[in-house]
Amino acid sequence: MIRRILGVALAAVLLTVGMNTANAQSNVTLRVACYGGSFTASQKKYAADLYTARTGVKVEFIDGNPSDHLAKLVASRGREAPFDLVYLDDNVQIAAIQAGVLEKIRPDDVPNMKLLYDQAKNKDGYGPAMIFFSVAIAYNVKKFEEAGLPAPQSWADLWNPKLAGHIGVPTLDNTMGHAFLVAAEYLNGGNESTPEKGIAKIATLKAQSYPQSSSVVEALMTSGDVWVIPWMNGRTWGLIDKGQPLKFVIPTDGAFAGYTTIDVVKGTPHEKEALAYINYVLDPLAQLGQANEVPYGPTNKVLAPVLAAYPKLAQKFPSSPEDIAKLRTIDWVTFNKVYPQAVSLWNREVVSK
Amino acid sequence: MLANGSALAGARPRSAAPDVWLWVLLPTLAVLGLIFGLPLADLIAVSVHEMTGPAQVGDALTLEHYRAFVTDPFFLVMVVRTFWLGFLVVAFCLAIGYPVAYYLARTTSRWRGMALFLVISPLLVSAIVRNIGWFPILGGSGVVNWILMSIGLIDEPLRLISNFTGVVIGLVHALLPLMILTLTTVIQRVEPELEEAAANLGAGPALVFWRVLLPLSLPGVVAGSLLVFAMAISAYTTPAILGGNRVLVMSTYIAQQFRTVLDYPAGGTAAALLLLFAALLTLLALRVRTKGGEAG
Question: What is the spatial distance between Cα B76 and Cα B68, in angstroms, rounded to a whole number?
Fold first, then answer.
């Protein structure tokens, strides 16, 4: 249903564009660093194409891994910027801000910023979050029933000795791994500044493996080698929609917020166009289209009542103001500061055990 | 293969004219220098600088990363684990690959082409698909465990993935074609008449293999082993996927430092040392081969 509405809306908007600004022209091409796959495809469909149709500014996506984008930005400091805009993960954005490669944004230049949840706005005035996702617990209902295990309800439930050898722990390389480390830090009486506490706690889990990518998690969940793993909503729902006997549980002590940000790159010659593009990304239509294609939650709060009317879609991501308020956020500045030590400890205490 | 080439080159009288082949090679060398040499030099240059923040490298020179690496037993264990992995993979590839290569070199069957295709088929599949494809075969309820449990050999499923065993299996599968192809080329050049002559003089099959075939195919054994060893110690995808990130080897450590910790000097140090160790081992192996050649 929502798909049809979106299709009609998109067609209508493009039609009006055709009538009003048929001769919108510009010889600017924005270079946008993105993630690739269905994410880039939905950003192109709902934000970039519309933007190009209305302004004539072309958009070229350069797909890659966020830390590779950061590496390129750092390597080109003082020279011509390799991109005009960049999509980044929350913790990578913090590192990019510290490296001084991003430009601050005045909210007046991006009118849609006013419509965002407070949690989506950057405190220091950098690029906003354009989607929310959640890191919580994905588990195999069938395997749990066979083993006579109750459904996990809190993060602490993952330390059930009966899960030894059957739990997957996301490796410390990705957002899920970061969030689970923080969960373990708090369970062990610590916080983001004490990775040793979280790692000591995780070391007591007898993990089947420490997967990094969703394709590996999918294979391990399908083969039955992994029964439960802290993972993100979008990918887990992808598996549920394919018919896997999985459930995605928000722990009572809170799922973790993950977000993807969009920023203007420092030194871009097309700042005005870049800011206008961000406004399109935050536009309700683009946000709803994105949520429908890849199940990540919009950060534009105008959409909350629309999503509430489509519970089947809305259950897949943090969609209501209450959901979003309940998400646990991570102090990334502190986390990043001790991250190299955390990885070193992880290699020694977790991987090598 | 290599030995024959150099022997021929040595036997040929030196011509006064400049070597044409050097000029032919020049464009290739320039391209290789540009796409391999320069980045490697950059990598080594990064390793002697300070890390000033994520993805950032300072100007000050330091050997601190090397000191930290070589004085820490944790890293020494990792290096040993990496080389042990390479050694095991080479040993299994040789043991499995030699008979197959011998068959391929000697057979006149019309199925030879088909057999050759089967041998190289692992090379045609992407590394990620090849690795993930092992999950349903080696997993806890996978085919192998199912068979072993059905015939009563084991009661509990064996752990064959997400550990060192899984990495060895995955790498042997991936690199076996290289070993077999290298060995086949060399064994083909050993004339079957030599084996027949040895047999006529009373040598059993084991003795023929040990005294005739093996020494004559030694260049192939060394070349194949070096190739497989170098690929095994630098493989990333298989240790990461089939090791379940529970097997830390040099390559996975380097990737981790570069791609997630963004500590380029630390990653560069490990990469430079891996290169150095691999180069030393290659030189050692080539010396052994030369000596073997002289003795023969």
Answer: 11
- Asked if A154 reaches chain B (Cβ–Cβ under 8 Å), the answer is no
Contact in structure between B198 and B175 (CB atoms under 8 Å)? no
Instruction: Suggest the residue from B261, B263, B264, B269 to mutate for an interface test with chain A (most A CBs closer than 10 A).
Output: B261
What is each CA distance from A179 to A135, A173, A316, B45, in whole angstroms? 7, 11, 19, 35
Cα A115 to Cα A108, A130, A282, B48: the distances in Å are: 12, 11, 9, 49
User: Which pair of tokens denotes residue B235?
Assistant: 């493989």
The tens digit of pLDDT for each residue in A219-263 reads 999 889 999 999 999 989 989 999 999 999 999 999 999 999 999
Question: Are A210 and A343 spatial neighbours (Cβ–Cβ below 8 Å)?
Answer: no
Nearest CB among A70, A216, A348 relative to B132 is that of A216
Question: How close is the nearest chain A Cα to the Cα of B256, in Å?
Answer: 7
Q: Which of B128, B135, B244 sits opposite A210 (nearest CB)?
A: B244
Q: pLDDT tens digit string along A273-282? A: 999 999 999 9
Q: Is the alpha carbon torsion for B223, B224, B230, B233 positive or negative?
A: negative
B259 touches chain A (CB under 8 A): yes
Distance CA B253, CA B244 (A): 14
Which of B53, B54, B245 has the CB atom closest to A209's CB atom? B245
- pLDDT of B86-100, one tens digit each? 999 999 999 999 999
Q: Complex ipTM above 0.90?
A: no
* Cα–Cα distance for residue pair B75/B14, rounded to 1 Å: 49
Element (H, E) at A94: helix A90-98
Residue of chain A whose Cα is closest to the Cα of B78: A352
